[in-house]
């Protein structure tokens, strides 16, 4: 009986140990579909909107499949959460705002950019045109909906300073991301902080009123925005997959740029919260204006310039988003850049 008891005790423990060992060793292996393509998850920065059209277009047109990738696109809940999920290995890749990435790296998260695609920020102050806000100076005394702690609210003081204003010249009303449009449309605030490629077209359609913008990039403050990110583990152990994902994404963006209508159509059914086709089109067309800086014009989407990275890092170090400015290589792995 003693022997049986010993065996009954040891065998399950042995099986558990072997199973755990197998799980650990297979962590570097990517799951595959029946065609042998790598099953890959991409988590967006938010619910699907026009900016994301190239990923849906690339999937529909077989671009990702051509690169051996069976892509699943998942909605996000803000860049900060997408960065955290990517660092934790809960998604293979993320699509997130560079300021959120910088902050995460500063906090010790093992995650990097493998290519910023939106190289001019869409950050802006948005408002109805009848507010007669024509320049940053007109914001004095205004109430603006923002989300405490996000990159927009943290860089807004730098935007004000660049335009001769103090933080005390405006009132920021803390609002959750989904509530900012409602705050403006109800008249509770005069404006909101958001992406010009996101809220504005939706707000204009819902209200029937013209929306105007003060874009950071047009008023003295520009920096990198959204791009592909991956965990340090993925970058180290799945280099071929990362290279193929970046190449496929770059090809998808280039193809979508030439077929905006097709790119928008590819988003059909992507989400229950999906904006109308008109709004998606406006959002995507606005996004296409952000793909390059002067240093990367004429190059493939996703090719970055080290000096542009340095400028972005400096902006967020000065704004206090990161406590210490590291070299670009601390945040970005240039080795996966798509062919020019």
Following the backbone from N to C, one meets helices and strands in this order, namely: HEHHEHEHEEEHEHEHEEHHHHH
Q: From the coordinates shown, what is the CATH architecture of the largest domain?
A: 3-Layer(aba) Sandwich
Termini Cα gap:
72 Å
CATH fold group of the largest domain: D-Maltodextrin-Binding Protein, domain 2
Name of the CATH homologous superfamily of the largest domain: Periplasmic binding protein-like II
- Radius of gyration over C-alpha positions, nearest whole angstrom: 22 Å
Structural class by secondary-structure content: alpha/beta
Number of helices: 13
**Uncertain runs with pLDDT below 50, 5 residues or more?**
1-26
Approximately what portion of the residues adopt beta-strand conformation?
15-25%
- Overall pLDDT score: 91
Q: Report on the biggest sheet.
A: 5 strands, mixed
Tell the overall outline: globular
Main-sheet strand order equals 2-1-3-10-4
Number of strands: 10
Please characterize this protein's 3D structure:
The chain has 340 residues and is α/β, with parallel strands linked by helices. It folds into two domains: 196 residues, D-Maltodextrin-Binding Protein, domain 2 (3-Layer(aba) Sandwich); 96 residues, Periplasmic binding protein-like II (D-Maltodextrin-Binding Protein, domain 2, 3-Layer(aba) Sandwich). It contains 13 helices and ten strands. The strands form two sheets. A five-stranded mixed beta sheet has the order 2-1-3-10-4, sandwiched between helices. Helix 2 crosses helix 10. It is globular.
Helix and strand topology:
Elements: H1 2-25, E1 38-43, H2 53-60, H3 63-66, E2 69-74, H4 79-87, E3 93-97, H5 98-106, E4 111-116, E5 123-128, E6 143-146, H6 151-162, E7 171-174, H7 180-185, E8 191-195, H8 199-207, E9 211-215, E10 226-231, H9 232-237, H10 239-258, H11 260-265, H12 277-287, H13 306-318
Parallel strand pairs: 1-2, 1-3, 6-7, 6-8
Antiparallel strand pairs: 3-10, 4-10, 5-8, 5-9
Helix pairs in contact: 2-10
